[in-house]
Amino acid sequence: DKRYLADLWLKVRRSPSYVSRLSQFPGTFMEKEADILSYGLSRLVWKDPELALKTWQKALKRFSFSETQQQRLANKFSVALSSGNHAKAQIRLDRANKLLNEKEWFRWHLAHVLRREDWQHALDLINVAPDAISKDYSYQYWQARAYEHVDAQPLAEQGFAQLADQRHYYGFLASGKLAKAPSIVDKPLSFDPQQLKQVATMPAAQRAYEFLQLKRYASARREWMYLQRQLDEQQKLVSAVLADTWGWHDRAIFTFARAGYMDDIKRRFPMAYSEQLVSNSKLHNVDPAWAFAIARRESSFMIDANSGAGARGLMQLMPGTARYLAKKKIKSNSLYDPAKNAEFGTQYLRYLMDKMDDNPILATASYNAGWRRVKGWIPEQGSLPMDVWIETIPFKETRNYVKAVLAYRQIYAAQLGQQSKLFESLANMQISSADVSL
User: Could you write out the DSSP letters of every residue in 261-323?
Assistant: First the structure.
């Protein structure tokens, strides 16, 4: 007698819009059916907000949803409607105020207010944020930005000045607002050379090195992970230096991150495959710092990287993209060659810059999400500050990707000796449909 519940779960899983067929929910086991409806509505609101809202109102008349379910749905609806800039987003955000301590809900509420450039509302929201949230760099930055627009310039400058010392996307943005050079301090790890020798002579390290020389990368990584389990915290840091001396940049980057040492800039942001990236960047007229930043974010310079979607190599190119750029057949495995990958990767950056009228922020977003989708996110009417546009990118992955690549690009510009004013430009940039051919 409960078999129909399994059928309902499966149908809703396959197509969330199935929840709109309320006649298929007989009310025999109300609690379980409410669970299925709650699950389906939380997915449907992302695909068809109008249908989800309509179905929810009807379902409330027939089913008794628990307080937990109602709060969870209020959260999901508010976030989904906010991300799509829906007309009813503010109403839903206000109804979800019981979830004030949930970070994701709070972030989307702020993003919704920022998109409307309601700066006093943004300031009010930040001022009531829980301590765990308000101490985040993003909230410090937006508080200073809000002060700019409510005639509190001294407080704005004070906030930007406090944040500008941070080697972080928001720290760089704050520097841009103050028209000062970003703070990038390199503090190489201090260690005893004897420690390095000790780790290098451990059997697992020797095996990892030999596999690395044989280009048997998967086996080398397995030995490296086995080695890590034998090391104390200081030895792990030293092992990151060891990997860097071998030119094994992805292991050095990951090991530093896991050990929690973030200030060894030159080892965490190495000039890996410099010849290939710089020469091809010049060939295709793109900024080499951008190419380095993309490779660092995409693969951490792991030349045999292979994503679940099929993206390959240094700059994580799809074989289809490479074939499109080359106008001929390309063997997928050739993208594991750093020279080939850098060639097509930088050519693709040029292609995206052409599509986005030479806007590097939109081109960066396009590298992750696709240029057609990014053009759909550009305001159809009016303009929006570029930092606000980045903050309100609907896809969390793309939003974080753009922030990371921009920060990495600033770091690599310093490594290359460039006098980059990327964030100074970004801090004052506006985006509108007039800026890009839609």
Answer: ----HHHHS--TTHHHHHHHHHHTT--HHHHHHHHHHHHTT-TT-B-TT--BTTTTB-HHHHH
Neighbours of 435 (CB within 10 A): 17
Task: Tell me if residue 86 falls in helix, strand or coil.
Answer: coil
With a pLDDT cut of 90, the percent of the chain lying above it is: 78
**Cβ proximity of 301 and 253 under 8 Å:** yes
Angle at 407 between CA 406 and CA 408, to 5 degrees: 90
Residue 410 phi/psi, 5° resolution? -65, -40
Alpha-carbon gap, residue 38 to 75, rounded angstroms = 12
Residue 314 neighbours by CB distance under 10 Å: 31
CA distance 424 to 209: 43
Return d(Cα 392, Cα 99) in angstroms, integer: 20
As a whole number of Å, the end-to-end CA separation of the chain is 54
Mark residue 261 as left, alpha or beta (left: phi above 0; alpha: psi -120 to 50; beta: remaining).
beta
Hey, is 431 helix, strand or coil? strand
Structure letter (DSSP) for residue 29: T
d(CA 31, CA 25) in angstroms, rounded, equals: 11
| Tens of pLDDT, residues 318-374 | 999 999 999 999 999 999 999 999 999 999 999 999 999 999 999 999 999 999 999
Element (H, E) at 383: strand 383-385
CB 252 within 8 A of CB 243: yes
Q: Which of 373, 360, 370, 376 is nearest to 422 (CA)?
A: 360
Q: What is the C-alpha separation between 174 and 157, in angstroms, rounded?
A: 9
Q: Which of 33, 223, 298, 391 is catalytic?
A: 298
Residue 184, burial from CB neighbour count under 10 angstroms (0-12, 13-18, 19+): middle
**Biggest CA-to-CA distance, the chain:** 74
| Prediction pTM value | 0.86
- What is the rounded CA–CA span in Å between residue 414 and residue 138? 23
pLDDT of residue 109: 81
102 is catalytic: no
